[in-house]
Amino acid sequence: FQEDRQDAEQIQSPLPFGIIHESKYVPLVEGGELRTDVIQAKRLRATEISSSSFRLVWPKLLTRDTGYYVLEYAPTGEPRRKLTKQLTGDHTTILVVGLVPQTTYEVALVPESNERYIPPQTTRVTTLEEVISPARVLISESKAHSVRVSWLPTPESVASYQVLYGPLPANSVKLLVVDGSQNSTVLENLAANTTYLVTVSAIYKSGKERALSAKACTQEENSKVKHLRFEDLGPSTLKASWDPADGDVLGYRVRCRRQAGPSNLLSVSPQIHSVLLSNLTAGGTNKVCVKPVYKNLPGKGLCRMVRMQPASQVRSYRHRPRA
What we know:
The chain is mostly beta strands and 323 residues long. Helix content is 3%, strand content 43%. 15% of the residues are buried.
């Protein structure tokens, strides 16, 4: 018993007598979620640092009723550029914007309270190097009437992108506005087989702009009829049929070059996809070409050679006398 008492005297609590010390366990995770109200900044520090902004967080030193804060910040070695903001006492964070990229700032948070003196808190923050956008403009998925325009990178400091595009060498320009979080868009309703000048302008949240241009070429429209075929309707008559061409076709021109005799040219409406060719030479070879007609695009003709069947010879019968 004496030994147990000596051991107890050696492990006495160092806490002074007359003061009640109460400890309470506060869980950091409750209901499967992290309790952010428990994890608080113990001193002034910076988070979410970018090329033009950073967020300041600090412990709760005041309330709205007990005082206010004075925030001061300036580039290192340039006190004349100091900026000052007054914040209510219930603030514990603020986003500081409009900063210069790759610059070190001296920051001071001064609590002002009539109840007690609270020493200022200071920190030093260096903004990141500015990410230039767009650094590259890419053209892909080129079709007859559309192309995809992409750009890199897409920093958070960009509010939106303006895409200007127009055919060369004309002066007509169209504008397309894209959200700053996106890095591509599709330009539609373009002219086929045409070169466009595309300019992507980054509109930064600070108000600055940066632009980069590229040339985009649309594909040639499939301006040729498909599957030209023939149907023999007799020794001198032929039916020519074809599948329609792509695009806004105004009509078709059908030319038949005979082996002997003059050639003839027929013009039909865009809804017509077959014609009858007559007065052809039996047994002769003919060249038939069908070409679509466009307003601003030269159509390509599809030609085929066709040989007419020779006319059937009339058999002659000789009367033979009976033996």
